[in-house]
Amino acid sequence: ASVPVDDDRKDPNLQEISFDLGFGEENFEVFMDPDIQAFSQGKHDKIVKPHMKGHAVKFFNMSPYSVKLFWISDSNEPMDMGVCKPFHSVGTASFPGHNFIFAPLDYMQSKVVYQHFPIDKTGTNALYYYDPIHVPGNEERTKKNLARLTLSEYEKYNKMVRNRKFAEHYKKVTGREYLTMYPRPKPRHFMWPADYINQTHWVTSRETFFKNIPEDNLLGTIREKPLERKLKEDDPVAFSDYREPGDHLNMTIRVVSVRPRVYEIDSFLSEQEVDHIVAYAQSANLKLSTVGQGGDSKKAKVRTSYNTWVGRETNQIFDTVYRRAADLLQIDESLFRDRDATEFPDWPNKRSIGEQLQLVHYNEKQEYTAHHDFGYADVDNKLQPARFATLLLYLNDVEEGGETSFPRWHNGETGKELLTKPKKGKAALFYSFLPDGNLDDYSQHAAKPVLKGEKYLINLWVRDPIKDF
Ligand SMILES: O=C(O)CCC(=O)C(=O)O
Ligand SMILES: [Fe+2]
Question: How far is the CA of 343 from the centre of ligand 2 (A)?
Answer without folding.
Answer: 30
